[in-house]
Amino acid sequence: MSTRSTPVTEEHFRYLAEHTRGDDAFLLSLKDAAAAAGMPAISIAPEQASMMQVLLKAARAREVVEVGTLAGYSAISMARALPPEGRVRTIEICDSHADFAEEWVRRSDVAGKVEVHRGDARVVLAGFAGESADAAFIDADKDGYLCYLDQCLRVVRRLGLIMVDNAFAFGRLFEKEPDDPEVPTVRAFNDHLARRGGLHPVIVPVGDGCWVAVKE
Ligand code: SAH
Ligand code: DHB
Ligand code: MG
């Protein structure tokens, strides 16, 4: 038995980004407006959006739940991969982010396919019915990740998808003494997810590292 793996370098990241469908004019202007409004530039990468769209299409997903809306970039991207009757329920705790996202969803080609749910995802997710989604994407405060994973495992149907952002901890996964307390939180979450039963997970080295898992 032998295996062959190529370590992913900056050069590979650049190369795969150049070989992936990028942002259209609408998403570029959404990001410009979000930056102008003072929002952090932490939307998922375009190549990660493409990967998630491919997965959602392959899973024939109709109902998607997102934890962490920000400007609506990932919610709009995911909604574009759904059939006409599809829906993304995206949860956002910060009203100014939710306001911004709602406005841009309204102006988008997927208006009517994205619902912004306001509040702490710990509370909002608990109000979603079991097995009511085909896929979930977790991308909010890292302290909440374990709780969001538990809730998403309840809300997503069997053989549904659960995707989780930032497995590479903002590029700081291997830093010796990170000053950002979310870095050890992500490490602990990664260790948990790798061993947890009830789902089949893998880290995909795209963007800042994206967990992709199927609920078993
Ligand atoms: N998924 C987005 C980026 C999300 S950034 C994209 O790729 O386009 C993380 C977002 O999670 C921020 O807008 C932040 O306000 C929100 N957030 C943080 N804590 C939260 C919580 N407890 N419940 C819901 N949203 C939360
Ligand atoms: C950062 C990036 C993210 O994708 C996120 O969800 C939170 C923070 C960052 O780079 O700081
Ligand atoms: Mg993220």
Give a concise summary.
This protein is an alpha/beta fold and 216 residues long. The protein has eight helices and seven strands, in the order αααβαβαβαβαβαββ. A seven-stranded mixed β-sheet has the order 3-2-1-4-5-7-6, sandwiched between helices.
Topology:
Elements: H1 10-18, H2 25-36, H3 46-58, E1 63-67, H4 73-79, E2 87-92, H5 95-107, E3 114-118, H6 121-124, E4 133-138, H7 145-155, E5 156-165, H8 182-195, E6 199-204, E7 210-215
Parallel strand pairs: 1-2, 1-4, 2-3, 4-5
Antiparallel strand pairs: 5-7, 6-7
The protein binds S-adenosyl-L-homocysteine, 3,4-dihydroxybenzoic acid and magnesium ion (MG).
3,4-dihydroxybenzoic acid binds next to loops.
Can you give a write-up of this model?
The protein has 216 residues and is of the alpha/beta class. Helices cover 38% and strands 20% of the residues. The chain contains eight helices and seven strands; from the N terminus they run αααβαβαβαβαβαββ. Strands 3-2-1-4-5-7-6 form a seven-stranded mixed β-sheet, with helices on both faces. The longest helix is centred in the last third of the chain and has 14 residues, at 182-195. The radius of gyration is 17 Å and the shape is globular. The two termini are 28 Å apart. The model has no long low-confidence stretch (mean pLDDT 97). The chain binds S-adenosyl-L-homocysteine (SAH), 3,4-dihydroxybenzoic acid (DHB) and magnesium ion (MG). S-adenosyl-L-homocysteine (SAH) binds next to helix 4 and strand 2.
